[in-house]
Amino acid sequence: MKMKILSAVLTGAMVLTGMAPALSVRAESGETVLAEEGAGEQSGADDSGDGQNSAEETAGAEKGEEAQTQTAQIAEADGQSDSGETPESEPAQKAGGQNENGAAVQAETGDSVEVNGTEYEYTVMLPEGYDANVEYSYPVVYMLPEDGYASWSEGITEELTEVMASDQSMDMIVVLPTFDEENDFRTVLQAVTENVDEDYRTLADSAHRAAAGVGVGGYMAYIAGLTDAQTGEALTSPSTYGLLASIRGDFVSDANPWYSTCGDVYDILSGLYDIDDGFYENYYTYMDTPVDDEYANMDHSTNDMGAMFIEWATSIPDYHEYTARPGSYDSAFLSESLNRIMSRFTSHFLSGIVSGSVTLERAAMTAQEEGTEAEYSFTVGDIYSSFAGNAQMDVELKLQVVDPDTDEVLYETTAQDTVTGPGTYEGTIPVENAVNNSSSNVNVTVNILGTVQSVGTASMIRIQETGDSEDEQLIDLMGDWYFNYVGRNDPYTAADLTEDVYSQWPVVQPCLGNWEQGFGNITNIWYANTGWGWYVRTFELPEDFAKENLILLAGYMDDRGEVYVNGQRIGGTGVNEDGSSTGETTWAVLSQFDISADVLNYGGTNTIAVHCYNDPPYGGGGWYSGPVGLYSQAAYNKWQGLPSDVPEESEQQAVTEAVETQLGYLQSGDFDSYADTVDIGYFSDGKTKDTVVQEMKEAYPEGTVQSLTDTDITVFQTTDESGETLYLYSAVRQTVKTDGTTEESTVQETYRNTENGILMYGTHSRFFETSYDSALAASAQGMEEPTTEERYLVYLPEGYFESDRYYPTVYLLHQYNSDHTSYMTDNVDQLLDQGMEQGLFDDMIVIVPNSEESSWWRGDWEKMITDELIPLIDSNYRTIRDARYRLTAGASMGGQGAYGVALQNPDLFSGAVSFFGAFSMGGESSPNVIAENESAEYLSYFTLYFICGNEDMYGFGAPAIELNKTLTAKGVDHYFLIENGDHNSEFYIPYFQSAFAYARSNMYQSDEAVTDLLSGEAAVNEADGSVTVEASLTLADGIESYRNTIPESSYTQDTVQSISVPVTLQVIQNGQVVYESSDKDVTADGTGTYDFSFDITGKVDTDQSYEIVWKAAVFDRVAVLAQSEIPGESQEEPGTEEPGTEEPGTEEPGTEEPGTEEPGTETPGTEEPGTEEPGTETPGTEEPGTETPGTDKPSTDDPSSDKPSTDKGNGDKSGTTDKGQSDQTSKAAKTGDSVRT
């Protein structure tokens, strides 16, 4: 017997609960009533009343709280009052399937079905317009109860209503059935399904039926779809329900009342795979879980099944989706999951409903052009008739111009069309010329059957115009090109590509992504080996276009490519002249070539051809990124962000003369004078003033140079953020040696105009490539040479050059078959800048090492980081030399390397970030192996973040799931995510900033109080024509509590690490820093005083006043220990002081009367043993340069005079250890006076 209650509610048949499900209880009268809050009695108890809800009690006990229930009836959202009476006025219905409350459900009906003498009630949610659209038929979703009987999460019907009101879900019928333990739920569900198909306009086949549920309901959905309702036999193809979805599935817990009778879903899936290893293609399966959920990591539960699907097939989004999302189960998780499953169901129900394309009348336009026409064509498939019969439908097309980098909608408009049934529909839509940078995506969609379907996407490209000024002399070659994909059997040479040949090829817009199906003539692409392709186009070159220093940019080609202009080969990237590979990894290398004006046809047409190669077996392929164009030197500089304006002739002459002066000093071997032409703040790609002077000494040894001459000189200027004018000098430098040999090189340097004249200043670039000579890289590659040049990238945060603080460091490791430059291609510097600017994470230094393509960051490659790079970086940059402020990160092979390097070196690192890490390839360095063998305490020392895509082509999600399970079992906090995505940059880039935010926010953070434990003094000593600064640093009692403690492990060397305190002396005169000490680093385990001496002779003009600043840093905090203005000698009036008015410490040495000294002013050497105040020892009793950097402990020796050194770790560090004097630390000492003696 069936009863229909429109806009009414099934009285007592269902209970909406909180996140912890509560069961309803059937009273002896047979009526269903709500269980009392926290009650453990089970719905459907027999007449004896002995039925107990042991499952619910178990779940409640595990959570440690009572199950939350409330009397909320399913149709309450439709306007029914608590009393069951319908309000006097109903909300007016809107066109488009929604009422004023946003509901997309016309009504909910209460129905029932009898099975073996028991009546089972169910609710049917009908879509808006169901009664009016009599020609329409609908797919059906069966939403099964969370507890397995008659309970759903609170608000689930409202959520479903909201989802179906969106354009992500089509109109569907949703059924919520109830069950009890009297009959197998599959039998009841089958009967409900038959009733629904009989009573409503459904599409009655498994392709249009879905079963879904939360908790136990998710388990039931899989059982219902994978097994026969009568026999329980597993099905390789669906019988009734072809789409299955589980949200936070309770697949195996004691709270699942059906597990013991219906079986283990994991075992069922595994058994089906043994029968037919492609059975999953007959279904669509969805499962998700919160990472922190109690069910997630149970054996044979969601994560185990997710890993099993990954091992079966690494990329099956058409058939299966598994995600593990961070956090716990709550209403937000439920809402997101419901949106996902209804969207996925819609995509499958409507598969093939619309296909189409979009083309632009003009794809490439200058900024002055107003717009163009978008031509659309879409085909409605035969499936339309299944849903709408012969109904005619007015549809809306929406055109959006979207920024591909930010997804910002730059322009939007709509158009109308009418669909009369299956067939093709065409039209045009006007589109404005809206581009933020170089290109935009023009997306066209059509709203059909209540859903938004993609018609197609076209690229709109902004072409830069050629201007008259020197930095506007460029020919932009982005836009339309003829293209021919030739696979591995290339029939062409460049000479074959006449207009008659290439004009028959399809037209494409290259440099906007990798090759894919449907690009040009590509109809059957194989991701692992996509072959070769040719691109050809023509361009006009103005007669007056620049003719000197021309550069041709050809973007990025995967894996390699070569360029021809007017039939001449201009150059290749990764390609020899015969077309063979150079063997280098060049897919992330910009193709950039010098081109002679003689090759070009000025005032006429030129033809350019690009030959792109993709080599097996590495996937991808294609000419995937720009820029592409012909540039003058000035235009090229402008594109690079370098100075590009041409200065006045007098300024050019001044810069040129300054360089000529430098060349004169180098030719004569006068390196002291040369050093005076280099700004003290010089910085260029990691080089400082000291290092560039040393390089010149090595390049031009005294007496070896006959002449130095620069030709092809260009000078450009720009203004930096402070308003200062900088000059970029470029030239070809010819060196003639005294032995008659000649060398030629290209030079480029940045200069600035100062009070001391035009000085070489450097680029001050914050993201650059540099190199060093590596013994371990040579060893790793089996070289006979003792060292090899190894390159790496350095990223410095905004404000690095202006600040004095010290920074955390990240070592970012590259992928397999790649190199360090891949992160430059992915613009990680921009991601870092944005993240720091938005306050997502603190400022940090990032180092990107290089290695062999298949290094796996093991053996000597690991040691290269730990034994070479870290000391090198710490000695040249202001890094915090503490493992708590150092972490590793990486993608793929780099993700495995990040974990292997960090977890095996706790004295250097305390955090690791992995994007689709190749954990299964790590061997003994795999985090899975390490996590199994090490203690929870040791693993908890690290901040761990790892994520992977569920479509990862290498299946790296499976070992990530395993690692998550191990860490969770050991109680180790970590961040784990499996989300939709593949093994590529598109997956990791959106998570890059959040990964660093998580890592840094969960690593060690210092407190302000630590600087209270630092104090010091500084004094100037001028004698016999020399000027020195004597300074001291005192660490107070309590500093030892800030040391790093490392738990015991197989990799722990010292459980307690010393604390690092770098100190710096700055001397400022006339507003400019004229001296800054090479960084000195005190390494301490407790209280003590450390003395330093700095020789600043010749660095200051003692006739004028100057300022000294004595500073110390601990972690990322800097304390000024002493700061004072020193008057110039010409400003003093010697001998005018009244007797006894001298400031302590200002007397000339040796003039004091014995015994008259004030305390603390004793003549050196007169103190009684053991009576010295900390910091007052006389320098000069220690051999300079004998200390081991970073290892000095407090001693009783006095430091010697120390001159600036290029080794930032070679500072002289000595002093006294006097724990009895720790109470002398004071605020006054921290900001104490600096005095001249």
Explained architecture:
- The chain is 19% helix and 31% strand.
- It is built from 24 helices and 56 strands.
- A hairpin with a 2-residue loop joins strand 26 and strand 27 (568-573).
- Helix 2 crosses helix 8 (331-349).
- The longest helix has 20 residues, at 649-668.
List the helices and strands and how they pair.
Blueprint: E1 15-17, E2 24-26, E3 32-34, H1 54-63, E4 105-115, E5 118-127, E6 140-144, E7 151-153, H2 156-165, E8 173-177, H3 185-199, E9 209-214, H4 216-226, E10 243-247, H5 259-262, H6 265-275, E11 284-290, H7 302-312, E12 320-325, H8 331-349, E13 354-360, E14 364-365, E15 371-380, H9 383-388, E16 393-402, E17 409-419, E18 423-432, E19 439-448, E20 451-462, E21 474-476, E22 481-487, H10 499-502, E23 507-508, E24 532-541, E25 551-558, E26 560-565, E27 568-573, E28 592-594, E29 604-613, E30 622-631, H11 633-640, H12 649-668, H13 671-676, E31 683-684, E32 687-688, H14 689-699, E33 705-719, E34 725-737, E35 742-754, E36 757-760, E37 767-774, H15 775-780, E38 788-795, E39 809-813, H16 822-825, H17 828-837, E40 845-849, H18 860-876, E41 886-891, H19 893-903, E42 911-915, H20 927-933, H21 936-940, E43 943-949, H22 957-969, E44 975-979, H23 985-1002, E45 1014-1023, E46 1026-1035, E47 1044-1045, E48 1056-1057, E49 1059-1069, E50 1072-1076, E51 1080-1084, E52 1088-1095, E53 1106-1114, E54 1117-1126, E55 1214-1216, H24 1227-1230, E56 1234-1236
Parallel strand pairs: 1-7, 6-8, 6-9, 9-10, 10-11, 11-12, 14-20, 39-40, 39-41, 41-42, 42-43, 43-44, 45-56
Antiparallel strand pairs: 2-3, 4-5, 5-8, 13-15, 15-18, 16-17, 16-19, 19-20, 21-30, 22-23, 22-24, 24-29, 25-28, 25-30, 26-27, 26-29, 31-32, 33-34, 34-35, 35-36, 37-38, 38-40, 45-46, 46-52, 47-48, 49-50, 49-51, 49-53, 52-55, 53-54
